[in-house]
Structures are given as structure tokens and as C-alpha cells.
Amino acid sequence: MNHEVLVAGEALIDFLPEEPGPIAAVEGFERRPGGAPANVAVALARLEHAPLFWTRVGDDPFGRYLHETLVANEVPDRFLELDPDAKTSLAFVTHDERGDREFSFYRDGTADTRLEPGRIDDAVLADREWVHAGGVTLSSGRSREATLDLLDRAADQGCTVSFDPNERPELWPDADTYRRVVRGALSNVDVLKATAGELSRLGFEGETAEAIAGDAMTAGPDVVFVTRGESGAIAVGADGTEWAGTASHPGYDPDVVDTTGAGDAFVAGAIAGLREERDLTATLSFANAVGAAATTAAGAMAALPGRETVGSIGDGSIADE
């Protein structure tokens, strides 16, 4: 199989609460594989766009569990690095009665903060059509350098580059650093997925989601997807590009079990749709269907859908809208 997509970023362990409430009050947590780029990689594999995945986990029980899980989900282990000198990142997730989530990260000096620049060489990138990364690895020193280096060289090699800021304020020293680093990365990005709130905190302005997406395109991206949770998403493509135009989708109405990972599933759906040369409207519909399908079972990675499940929600055609 020719893995034409490369995904880069963190794989970690999510500990999900057995009941709502603050972390000190929750009596039990369930271990689940996680990390937004890891979820995107598995989702792409289930959508028949199996990628290479560059990540670094500890050579510890958690890291070996993640390695085994990724391989079992048809993600090749070529760039799944086991670090003998660092632990695997952990994230404890809590939520209130409304489902709003908070994260407590154990990530000081862990393996995914130790990605090394140049590990993905130019020869590897020359054989890829698409590279995707997220914002978490930009939050820490060596991995920040490695991620920025990857995006820069991927752009030079002619790869389509997609990016999800995946804003986690807990991991950044301050809001100004987050804004400066992420905005700087966008100069090498072709496809951006974010929420309106994330774009606003990056300093982009607009009275509507379409307007703020248009402002974000001035930083580099040719197309911006703005997700709106259960209300669907919009997309804006720059004039003169293959994705020119605007599109909106109100979202689907699945029987929701767990929304964890829905945004990552949306990203995978958008990548798959654009790689399959769907137009912007059909891609947006398909990405919404993938994201919605991911909410119909518990757990981020476990719930990521294949095409049959996505088809039960919507096939991505204009008629779905």
C-alpha cells in the first residue's frame, strides 16, 4: 500500500471519567488511546486512506499499548517511535453535567515533547501527497522545532499541508506565545480546521464564521473549515484555487453517545473528501457525516467510523443537505 498521507503529532493515553464532576471527585477513570493526530491517523485508515504516522511514545506499558493499538488499526509502525528515556503522556478528562470538558495533562518531558527535527527526511516527503499536523506538539520546545521543520519542508516538497490548532491552553506558557507560534505555522498550511473561538484567539476577526475564516486565509491557508459542534460547519476556499467558494452544512442528528474525537473524525473526513476530489460542498457534507458518525459510540478512537457507518449518517452528497 502506498501511504500517500503522513500524519504527525502526539499519541497519548486519555483517562475518561466514569461520571461527571471535578477530577478530585471522580472515583474511576477508564483508559483509552488518544491524541488528536493519532485519532486522525486511525480515522483515515478506516476511511481507506491509511497514512503513515509520526509520533513518539515512551517505551513503557502505556506506550507499548498505544503502539499495538495503532498497528492493530492498520497504521504502519515505520515512524512510531518508542523512547526509552521518557514516559508516555497522560490526559485526565473531566466533564460537567452539560458535557463541557476539561483536561489535566501529565506531559512534562514526556516522549511526544521530544520529537526530533529531520526524522522525516525529504525523500519520505517527496513520496507523500498530504501532511497533517496539530497544535499540541507546537506547545513544547523540541517538538515545536520538529513540527515547524516538518511543515516547512512538506510545503517545499509540494505536499498539501493541513493543520488543526487543537487549542489546549493548559499546555502553553501564555496566550501570546500560542498566538505567535500557531499563526507563524499557518504560512505553510493549505487546509485549516478550527472553531471560530480558536480563530478569534489567534487574532483573526470577523462578524460571521465566513468572515473570520476569510481573515484566517490571509495568514496562508487556501481553505478554512470552521466547525460548530452540533450545528455543523462552514468552509471557505480562496479564489483561484481548486477549492474556491463557500459552503455550509447544518450538521446531522445522530443518536449521540460520546462526542470525544468527533473533531478529529471531521478532520479525517475533510482530508479524505478533498483527496477524493469532491468539491467543497460535498467534502463539507462528508466531513460532517464522519464527525457525526464518530459520536454514536463511546471512546474517541474506538468510535471512529468506517465508510459503512458514515453512509448510515450521510454519503456526502449535496442531497444530504
Automatic annotation (TrEMBL):
Coiled coil: none annotated. It holds the Pfam family PfkB. It is an enzyme of class 2 (transferase). This is Carbohydrate kinase. Signal peptide: none annotated. Transmembrane segments: none annotated. Belongs to the carbohydrate kinase PfkB family. Its EC number is 2.7.1.-. GO terms for molecular function: ATP binding; kinase activity. InterPro entries: Carboh/pur_kinase_PfkB_CS, PfkB_Carbo_kinase, PfkB_dom, Ribokinase-like. It comes from the Archaea. Keywords: ATP-binding, Kinase, Nucleotide-binding, Transferase. Residues 3-305 form the Carbohydrate kinase PfkB domain. PROSITE patterns: PFKB_KINASES_2.
